[in-house]
Amino acid sequence: MGEPIAVALAAVPLIVVGVLLVGLLWPATRAMPIAWLSALVVGFLVWGMPVQWLAAATIEGVLIAVQILWIVFGALVLLYTMLRAGAFDVINGGFAMISEDRRVQVVLIAFFLSTFIEGAAGFGAPAAVVAPLLLGLGFPALAAVVAALIGHIIAVTYGAVGTPIIVGIREPMSGVSGIRTAIEAEGLTAAQFAVNVAAWAATYHLLVGFVMPLFVVGMVVYFFGDPDDRSIGPALEVWPLCLFAGLAFGIPYWLSAWFISAELPSLVGSMVGAAIVIGALRAGYFQPDGEWTFPDQEEWPDHWTGSIQPTDAKRVLARTHDISLVRAWFPYTLLVALLMITRVFDPFPALLQGEQVALFGRQVSPVLGTIATRGGEFTVGLFLFEWSNVLGTDLGTGINFTYVPGTWLLVSAIAAVGLFDMNRREVAEAWGSATKKLVSPLIALVFVLAMAQVMLQSGSHADGVDSMIVVLGTATANVMGPAYPMVAALIGALGAALVGSNTVSNITFGPFQFVAAERLGFSRELVVGAQAVGGAIGNLVAIHNVVAALATVDLIGEEGRVIRLNLIPLLYYTVFVGIWVLLFTYVLFPEVF
């Protein structure tokens, strides 16, 4: 089989995804099962994968999906608990009362609150929560959606307490034998490699993304100001505030990625940055000289608003309680503390990951035992489950519920119930809303990850066989050659735009980027770090994210307009990240693994 034919066949599952999702606008719940079937057909007929390997790869994908869904469920339960209790209304009011200037509100709510929600919940939650809040403050619906989508994008790499890194990078790097072997040859584990990738991704974000508050303010004032006198002048009037906000977020965000944990950068950056900026504004610093607002509502074009008018939007929020701002923030403060304890302070990280450790002078392990069967080996422990040699193959994976952030999100949500004195009906509504929201992601994630694992493992069943991902990565490396670092972030962005998720983009294209970098002799950490950044930025134009955001303000039908506007920050980010990757790869850090 010639190389062009092999590349074309390897790309079939991705082409199916692109045609069905982007071309025909099918929902992911319909498109992804067909994409998985196409991967099975190509894997069986072209790559010669035995049936048990196809089944084992699918099972591996399903278990990874369960791990992601556990995190999403915990994040949504906490989010809806906060909404039902009225705590988010208090948090929003705390931001809004600082200034009535729309530019300041964009910085505080569309940037800081959005990045915070992304770090805590991810998976579309920032736009779903922040767009209605901005609408309730009097923003045009279209402006609210654009601001919410652009404002949180720097945080997506570490969304849902680091899911795109701890699942999206670590899992495929540990699951593909050739990549795992290359990483281990450098004295690293897949988990350590993922942490290093997270640190380099934060570096790119800091260098390029610190201007995002100014960018989102500029988008709002230019496209939603006086239609007869478009200007970015009002944005430039608040450039000191915007750049101060970008650095107040970016520096603790970067420090967290390098020195604390891959789960916490977005949470730490948003919480610390917001506290610093709000303190400065209250002290009288960075306040605009004049107040900027939107034109009178009767002058708004029809496409700016849907059926929910700005004065009606507060009906989408739960009733408020008598909650102080400190109490409203407490569940997320508790979450950060729990994650730091379980990630930073020995011996908890090792213990919670299933290792035997010395505790109070005794050797302690959460593992209860291993059972060998014809279907593989099952290791069972306290809140952990591992399945190795799945169906007699070399594949294996598992779930560690005590280390996965979903558990600590649920603990924080349960603490919030007592803290806010919620009744049974409110708790049931919060948990019920979270459960209902899982249905569509469950179907889509199970099948897209099953497809990705079939593609990733299509070379594992026999020696000398390159997987579909290796074939695609090698072909791309051959085409791009020395310029490859420049397009690494763009590839990640296209992947996220295609599949609608940074995590899934990382799972699918992370190994692709690793192989391409390896073939060309570039740093794998730097190139895969660019993938992690690109996967975040691609969410700006992922059709599913745009539709979901528009639905929260009843503006379905304006997807094309939003995507066209969001292409501006997408192009800015991918070009400048590409330049930094080139500099890092060739000049500044060429020796990095």
Entry keywords:
single chain; 593 residues; mainly alpha; 4-stranded antiparallel β-sheet; 27 helices; globular
Describe the structure.
There is one protein chain. With 593 residues, this protein is mostly helical. 67% of the residues lie in helices and 5% in strands. It has helices spanning 3-10, 12-23, 28-45, 51-85, 87-96, 102-120, 125-136, 141-151, 159-166, 170-175, 177-185, 190-209, 212-224, 233-236, 239-259, 265-282, 325-344, 348-352, 405-419, 424-437, 439-457, 468-480, 484-499, 502-520, 524-537, 543-552, 559-588; strands at residues 357-359, 362-364, 367-373, 376-381, 384-388, 397-400. β5 and β6 form a beta hairpin. α8 packs parallel to α27. The protein is globular and about 70 Å long. It starts with a helix and ends in a 5-residue tail after the last helix.
